[in-house]
Amino acid sequence: MLLRILGDSLFRQKRRKLVVLAAVTLGTAAAAALADIAMDIGDKMSQELKRFGANLVLLPAEGGGEVKVAGEEMGAWRMPSYLDAAGLAKVKDNFWKNNILAFAPVFEARVHAEGRTAALWGTWFERRFDLPSGERFVTGIRSLNPAWSVKGRWIEDLDPEAVSVDPPPALVGVRLAAALGVEVGSRLGVRAEGGDLPLQVVGLLRGGGEEEDAILVTLETAWKAAGTSGKITRIAVSALTTPENAFYARLGSDPRKIPPSEFERWSCTPFVSSIAYELERSVPGSRARIVRRVAESEGRILQRVSALLLLLALMAGLGATLAVTSALTAAVLERRAEFGLLKALGAGNASVIGLLAAEAGILGIAGGLFGALAGAWLARWISLALFGSPVAIPPLAVPLAVAAALAMAFLGCVIPARRLLQLHPFEMLRGL
Of 306, 307, 379, 401, which one has the fewest beta carbons inside 10 Å? Predict the structure, then answer.
């Protein structure tokens, strides 16, 4: 009998039922879309935030630390030290190889150009090399700093065997180019320990940092100018990381202080400090320094975006719950006589409330299914618009969406159910 009454009630007050179904569907769609994006936004936001540049720098262990005397930095007075270029593959060939997005070695030398002293950077622009595992990897300063722009053209060094061009191409930072009075197509002569070397300016580099005061050439050209080979001043690394909480950020600066019970969890989580620790172990003679400005900015932005998405999802759910409450309350008031008759015939409060909850539950399941599909489409559209790639919808998205819709529907029943409990049969049947 109860099932028959439930079936008949679902097809009555169709307008009210459609309002409840629409409210649950829209609320679930909005909450599901935000949840789907939140589950996948960490990697996508990290990819976008890599426009900041490297978040790790590998320096020679002998010269990576600060040297201060009476509060003054004395690093400029020590003998230069270098990393071995033979260990470059280890930057990618380690435990965190899938988290290393890009890296670029830099050999820095001081040269004289047009009567001025300038920094000469030898680096990879977009270099292809083979890993010991047989995998081919393309990396360099271009992928490491996607926000940099060049007036002219970039230097092509994809194939290490095809970089010998005479005269060698060079990029000149815009500030240094203005001081030297050079333009794209100009010849620039530099003098270093390796002798005089003519360069062909193929582009002017704008990056917003110290690179605008430097001359950038291929790594082999810088070695030739300096009269050396196989030396690296530093390696800039861009790694996909997870924001550190305060506990791990404090202990990660010195892994020796991490308790043994926490060390495995720390070392297997892609914190910037744990990746730095692994790189130090992999690259011989290196010391990893975290670029805190970049790493902390990534963490703060991801935390704020996640909190904002959670708040918007809660607001969408609350709005849908209020709409369900309003529609069901109006439906209860319109159906007072029906509920009063049920009570007069012997139905208890539990049966009457169960009938109302069953209606809401059926509408909640239907709205949850529709909302999950609409939310998946909305999440993919938002992800394509913001990041240029679709969001990955996890398998649990549909059951979670249905559960959220049921929660909205049942919460929307609370106030109408209380109204039903407060009404007596003779009050509801008055006037019949």
Answer: 307
Pairing of strands 116-123, 100-113: antiparallel
Q: Which two tokens stand for residue 34?
A: 């935000």
Strand partners, 332: none
pLDDT in tens, 64-117: 445 444 445 444 445 568 899 888 889 988 888 888 888 999 999 999 988 889
Radius of gyration for the chain, computed over Cα atoms and rounded to the nearest angstrom:
33
Structure token digits, residue 239: 């790694």
186-243 pLDDT, tens digit per residue, is: 999 888 887 888 999 999 999 888 899 999 999 999 998 888 888 999 999 988 877 7
Question: Which residues contact residue 370 at a Cβ distance below 8 angstroms, ignoring those fewer than 6 apart?
Answer: 21, 25, 28, 29
DSSP SS3 for 421: helix
Here the contacts of 392-401 (C-beta below 8 Å, separation 24 or greater) are 392/39, 392/40, 393/36, 394/36, 394/39, 397/32, 397/35, 397/36, 397/372, 398/369, 398/372, 400/32, 400/35, 401/28, 401/31, 401/32, 401/35, 401/368, 401/369, 401/371, 401/372, 401/375
Nearest-angstrom CA–CA distance, 51 and 145: 6
User: Does the pTM exceed 0.85?
Assistant: no
**DSSP state for residue 98 in the 8-state scheme:** T
